[in-house]
Amino acid sequence: MRANRLMGLLGSTALMGLVAAPLSAQETEDFQYLGQLRFSILGAEPISDQVDPLTLTGVLTPTPLTEVPQSISVVSSEQIARRNLGKLDEALQYTAGVQAAPYAYDSDTNWVFLRGYDATQTGMFMDGSQLLSYGFGSFYIDPFLVERVEVLRGPSSMVYGSSNPGGVVNFVSRLPTDTEGTVTEIGATSQGRAWVSVDSNRHLDENTALRFGARVQRTDGYGMFAPGTTALAFAAVTHRFENGGTLTVAANYTDMDETHVGGTWLPYEGTVVDAPFGRFGEYFNTGEPGFDSYDRQQAMVTAIWRQDIADGWTLNNTFRWGRAHVREQMVYAYGYAGYSLTPTDPDGTLSRLVFAHDSLTTVLSNDLHVTGQFATGEVDHTLVAGLDARRYQLDQVQASATGTGLTSVDPIYGAPQPAPVPYLDQEITQQQVGLYLQDQMRFGEGWMLTMNGRYDWVSTTSTRDAATGVAGVDRSDREFSWRLGLSRQIGAFTPYATLGTYFNPQIVANPAGNAIVPESGHQAEIGLRWSPDDSTLFSIAAFDIRRENVSLDQYDWAIGSYYYYQIGEIRSRGVELEYRGRLSDSLTLEASATLLDAEILADLNPAIVGNTPMTVAETQASLMLIWQPASIDGLTLSGGLRYTGASWVDNENSARVPGRTLVDLGARYDFEGGWSANMFITNLLDRDYVASCNSAYWCYQGEGRNVSLTLTRSF
Q1: If DSSP codes are grouped into helix, strand and coil, which group holds residue 680?
Q2: What distance in Å separates the CA atoms of residue 152 and residue 123, rounded to the nearest whole number?
Q3: Alpha-carbon gap, residue 26 to 14, rounded angstroms
Q4: If we measure between CA atoms, which residue out of 154, 111, 68 comes closest to residue 546?
Q5: CB distance 457 to 441 below 8 Å
């Protein structure tokens, strides 16, 4: 009954958005979208090299970055193209507060830590709609589908409902724009990735625009046993109606068929430090050729409605349907023979496990809100009131078995592997409905006060586990979250201060889940932005985040199940700096630095209280110089440094993973006739390093030198 009521509400919000057009037609005679754009959505349009663009992330109304009362960064499609990137987590390697790709190169997942917290499960969004991930039920977003990537740091439940305490990453889709054109590209890398793509934007008439694109890619390298393929396609159409409404419908499809990369699941001894046999070779693959496979079919459809109503009020509705089917099987290492952390024979024989899963994920969401501008006395208001509903469902089967051993020295593959036996077979559903209100108030000489409040109802259910017979869960939660941000523009400077809260319901898909309340916490942040001109933006922020009610589990071997405790607490505080601007007419600098202090404040194991959470690098810095020499028209040279500090192998802080500094180098030349060639080299010096470990059993080799080259034609 609860599910039916929630789905009814979800459908009704979408219907309200669609019927708003005829209801308001009599109110609007001539179409005008904020007096600026023809087809692009304000706050989601291409931004090129703008340093203070409008954004919708974290504020719901088109707002300059300098007026958002939280630390925020935007990475444009031009910045992504400059580095010929194949993954979106790597696009954030020069962004403050972000530990991107902490587990090194993973071809099928975008891994991101924000302010020391893993944002991969509940911190990923696309066009403002959450891409919730649980287990292996996830959505993978490729750079080809994205116009820009926006990073909002710190809690954001007051806008988005349940989400990660460290912040959110919002991928903005490629949609029809105000400029017609087509871009074709062919590219290849030294790791064996090769692709060809087309992206075209066309105006069918004065009220209709169409954008579509496709890319076919060969995937190889990084220790893969066999080449794979990835096919991507998207299409979006925007139409302006005579009554002042604008409808954008967008769809995308992703098909991945590949094998897993190497350099993962490796024990600390032999990866970070020498074992008796030395160290594992580059991209050492602990899997099994012929058995290893990864297959993903994914589709999403999004509909965005914008409607001028009357007297400065507008209606906005965003609907999303998505489906991802992932089937995967692999063999991976679990330490050395006998599950030891150290070699037990001269050949360093590894223990291996067999794993397989079949995960079908569907999402359905709808966000309906109205925006109005009015004044009360000397205060100008921009008010947003909305209803947000979403449904996430995962139908999953997971299976495992004990695999054969594999020697670290001269490995011999090909041993038959046992068939994995299902240990989990159930369906999980989480539904959420939220009512929210935002008021941006401008008053006095440059003052701005942003107030947010949101109340959410969350339902989490799971069916009886068909593999074990264990009963499922049926839990309901309610939570209020808020934010209060105050800023003032003083010439080129904008100081601000903000307080906010978050909550994050846990999915524990057995009867213990009925007693697990949502994680919660709060943040205090102060910051300063300096933007003396259109090409310069400097930001500094200091913050303190508390993550409370962290769910901890302990296995009881006597009864063969877990006990769950909610006594965990983690604090993250630090300082972030980010700069982007021109040093001269031909030289641009992009720089960032993060100084983080992450600490476990409470845990089941008192010995780790006061320690730093594993995997988290507390110090990061980056520098990118872009030079366009006046003497050579069309040439752009770029060079970057990326520093990531040391991290801990485990929460006991028993061993460290050393930090590293990597060098990147790029060159682009624009020819006549719309042609351009772009080369970019990551890890120019081919430095060997380990990205991180999450226990001494599993460490991840960093990405070696990779040379990429593209040839592009724009017309």
Answers
A1: strand
A2: 10
A3: 21
A4: 154
A5: no
Asked whether residue 363 is assigned to any structural domain, the reply reads no
What is each CA distance from 34 to 37, 38, 40, 336, 432, in whole angstroms?
Answer: 7, 10, 11, 63, 32
Evaluate whether residue 589 is within a structural domain: yes
What is the predicted pLDDT for the residue at 563? 75
Would you call 55 helix, strand, or coil by DSSP?
strand
Residues 665-690: tens digit of each pLDDT: 999 999 999 999 999 999 999 999 99
Distances in Å between the alpha carbon of 571 and those of 61, 446, 528? Answer: 31, 33, 23
Q: How many domains would you assign to the chain?
A: 1
The ranges of the chain with pLDDT < 50 are 1-7, 9-36
- Output the pTM of the full model: 0.93
Element (H, E) at 17: helix 2-24
Confidence (pLDDT) at 334: 97
pLDDT given at position 310: 83
30 three-state secondary structure: coil
Coil, strand or helix at 515: helix
Angle at Cα 615 formed by Cα 610 and Cα 621, nearest 5°? 100
Does 45 fall in a domain?
yes
Comparing C-alpha atoms, which of 525, 474, 466 is closest to residue 499? 525
- Give a yes or no: residue 362 inside a domain: no
pLDDT of residue 560: 67
CATH of the domain at 228: 2.40.170.20
* Phi, psi values for residue 559, rounded to 5°: -110, -5
Is the CB of residue 76 less than 8 Å from the CB of residue 98?
no
Rounded-to-integer distance, Cα 106 and Cα 85, Å? 13
pLDDT at 377: 94
Length of the chain: 715
Instruction: Evaluate whether 246 touches 28 at the Cβ level (below 8 Å).
Output: no
Q: What are phi and psi of 635, to 5 degrees?
A: -95, 135
How far apart CA 650 and CA 692 sit, in angstroms, is 10
* Strand ranges across the sheet with 98-100: 98-100, 112-114, 117-118
Print the domain residue range for 374: 2-357+368-714
What pLDDT is attached to residue 48? 86
Show the beta-strand stretches assigned E in 505-560: 519-530, 537-556
